[in-house]
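step=encode ok
step=design start
structure_in=
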């Protein structure tokens, strides 16, 4: 339980970038294996301790009866331990290889579970089946190599052990025939061989199990050692009274995967209570601005401040608590509407939840559902429409009541009624608050106090709708004319 909780906590702490790069399927397979290994390890350890005590008692007793039998046996143990060392190392190595393949297979399966819609839309069920089958090729090879490493252990230990047992027996028979050993002593040695060696093999098999568990747990705990890149400061600040002024000063930012800057010498100033619309072509860097503001990534050059304080001086959790974000494609928990709306403030009362739902224009919809607030929304919220999901996300932000609001407008076609409701809901909650809107719709843009046009990571134009539309060669004018269909 402790291990699971520790790993879960660590996964929550890990950076946004870690989650972008992970494969959920592989990760779950890793965690499951680590959990299982924990149980086995506990069991194996118990048995190993018992066997070792057993062996020691046998060895010591025989030391008094016939010291040389114990002597030879000790030699045998040393010889075998050397052999075991190398064999088990190889065994762990093959186990690791096999685990890698196993994780890959899980990755494909989970990716398919997530993408079920795409698979169906393209009728690629057979293709996916073949893809998985192909992944099983290397999986199968790795499994054989792993299985064979066990046979290698069997052969290695068997050869050494059996040689010694047969040798001891032949020597015993010979000694009895020549009168150097009494029959009683011979029987005793046989007894020794049959108890000791089998116990010893038991020990080796248990060690082998431990080796397997070791490599499983190793991967599991490696999660705990994953570095957190975006760190909290040693002595974090908090603001006495949050005004919600935001500045970007000469900010440069490159995503690790890219060799171009997503933001170049980016400057932005947002005053208290102002609403600012970010406008620009797809890929211009609008969403990046928001991610940097929430410190999902750290910038390479420049400074981002809130109320004049560098955002790196705040704890991440504090910084993010200042914002309410309505994402472009909100994702919901596979839980009830109530759970999802109250997510920003789980202690909210029924009345508050209903009030927020009303303000977000989603209450009418909820009310006519047979199960109302207790309706489950499906994985990621798939049972709701895009517009409904966004309004749930707005209700969630209303309950949180943050100082600064960020709204990434949906690019997908919403019907005009949904669009109108979302807009109404949104402007209602942003009243008197600092607001950043990544805007795609004209109605949203016109309402904003200031429009900032971004192109290739730079601010190229700034001003009110009127100012920008009247500039002859502005990109804004171009975008506007295209949207209104006046030119194409
Ligand atoms: N996590 C990421 N890793 C690498 N590149 C990214 C990542 N997110 C966005 N980008 C790139 O950064 C640029 C800006 O993206 P974004 O800010 O999402 O644009 P938009 O203005 O459409 O919101 C794009 O070229 C995009 O491909
Ligand atoms: Mg975007």
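sequence_out=
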């Amino acid at each position: 339980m402790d291990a699971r909780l520790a790993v879960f906590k660590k996964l929550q702490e890990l950076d946004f970038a870690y989650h972008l790069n992970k494969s959920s399927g592989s990760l779950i397979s890793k965690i499951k294996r680590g959990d299982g290994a924990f149980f086995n390890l506990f069991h194996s350890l118990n048995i190993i301790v018992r066997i070792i005590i057993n062996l020691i008692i046998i060895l010591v007793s025989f030391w008094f009866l016939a010291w040389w039998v114990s002597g030879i046996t000790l030699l045998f143990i040393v010889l075998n331990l050397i052999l075991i060392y190398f064999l088990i190392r190889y065994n762990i190595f093959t186990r690791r290889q096999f685990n890698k393949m196993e994780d890959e297979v899980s990755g494909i399966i989970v990716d398919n579970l997530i993408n079920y819609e795409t698979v169906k839309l393209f009728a690629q069920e057979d293709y996916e089946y073949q893809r998985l089958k192909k992944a099983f090729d290397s999986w199968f090879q790795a499994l054989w190599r792993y299985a064979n490493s066990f046979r290698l252990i069997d052969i290695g230990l068997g050869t050494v052990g059996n040689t010694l047992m047969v040798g001891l027996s032949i020597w015993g028979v010979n000694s009895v025939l020549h009168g150097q050993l009494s029959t009683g002593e011979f029987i005793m040695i046989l007894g020794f061989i049959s108890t000791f060696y089998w116990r010893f093999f038991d020990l080796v098999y248990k060690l082998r199990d431990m080796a397997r568990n070791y490599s499983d747990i190793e991967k599991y705990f490696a999660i705990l050692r994953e570095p957190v890149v975006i760190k909290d400061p040693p002595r974090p600040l908090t603001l006495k009274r949050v005004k919600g002024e935001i500045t970007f000063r000469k900010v440069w930012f490159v995503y690790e995967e890219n060799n171009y800057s997503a933001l170049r010498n980016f400057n932005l100033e947002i005053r208290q209570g102002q609403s600012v619309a970010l406008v620009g072509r797809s890929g211009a860097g609008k969403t990046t601005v928001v991610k940097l503001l929430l410190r999902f990534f750290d910038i390479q050059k420049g400074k981002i401040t809130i109320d004049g304080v560098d955002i790196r001086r705040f704890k991440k959790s504090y910084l993010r608590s200042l914002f309410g974000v309505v994402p472009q494609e909100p994702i919901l928990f596979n839980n009830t509407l109530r759970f999802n709306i109250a997510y920003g403030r789980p202690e909210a009362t029924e009345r508050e939840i209903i009030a927020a739902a009303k303000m977000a224009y989603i209450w009418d919809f909820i009310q006519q559902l047979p199960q109302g607030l207790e309706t489950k929304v499906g994985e990621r919220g798939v049972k709701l429409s895009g517009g409904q999901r966004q309004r749930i996300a707005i209700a969630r932000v209303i309950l949180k009541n943050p100082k600064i609001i960020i709204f990434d407008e949906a690019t997908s076609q919403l019907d005009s009624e949904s669009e109108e409701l979302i807009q109404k809901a949104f402007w209602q909650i942003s009243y008197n608050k600092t607001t950043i809107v990544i805007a795609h719709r004209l109605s949203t843009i016109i309402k904003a106090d200031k429009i900032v046009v971004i192109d290739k990571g730079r601010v190229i134009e700034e001003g009110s709708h009127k100012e920008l539309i009247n500039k002859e060669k502005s990109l804004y004018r171009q975008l506007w004319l295209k949207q209104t269909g006046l030119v194409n």
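step=design ok
step=annotate ok -> The chain has a mean pLDDT of 88.
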